[in-house]
Amino acid sequence: MSDRDARDREVGELEAQEARLVLPRFTYEDAWTLGGLLVGMARERGAPVAVDIRHGPQQLFHCALPGSSADNDAWIDRKRRVVERYGVSSFLVGARFRAKGTTFEVSSRLDPDRYAAHGGAFPVAVEGAGVIGSVTVSGLPQAEDHAMVVEALERLLSSYASADD
Fold first, then answer.
1. Predicted TM-score of the model (pTM)
2. DSSP 129
3. DSSP 8-state secondary structure symbol assigned to residue 162
4. Which residues have a Cβ under 8 Å from the Cβ of 78 and sit 6 or more positions away?
5. How many Å apart are CA 53 and CA 162, to the nearest integer?
6. What is residue 128's three-state secondary structure?
């Protein structure tokens, strides 16, 4: 498989995640549940992360675990701004630029002190409403930040299905 094919495949996989991870609702209680899932996962793994969950501009959840720093909060802000601007995960935005043979930093024309297309920020999308917020993790390598958010959203989505049974 060529590098181009691998980059295109990565973009397709990330787009499929986003299509699959659309929630039936997202309340303040759901934000708390999602935040608790992420904090629990991070503690189990000894991950030194900060977690942030937003509904529009309102911060509904924030937690900084031991080993994280104010730098993680700055990364959260930069990655979250990418989700707000593009309406897709920060990791997908970076992957799309790489698939075009460039980088976000070189080609986006956005201030890298304010925007970072690195993994870890994911849109909170609700059926019938679209993207209404974001969930962000910072503190691990970008693919791991992204994977942690995806896993927590999958668990949250699964809990909705279980509650309906």
1. 0.94
2. T
3. H
4. 112, 113, 114, 115, 116, 118
5. 23
6. coil
pLDDT of residue 2: 73
Digit-coded pLDDT (tens) for 94-104: 999 999 999 99
Neighbours of 95 (CB within 10 A): 25
Alpha helices in the chain (DSSP H): 3-20, 28-45, 70-86, 90-99, 104-107, 142-164
C-alpha to C-alpha distance for 112 and 165, rounded to whole angstroms: 46
DSSP 122: E
For residue 21, give every residue at least 6 positions away whose Cβ sits within 8 Å of its Cβ, in sequence order, or none.
122, 125, 150, 153, 154, 157
pLDDT of residue 110 exceeding 70:
yes
Token pair 């935005």: residue: 93
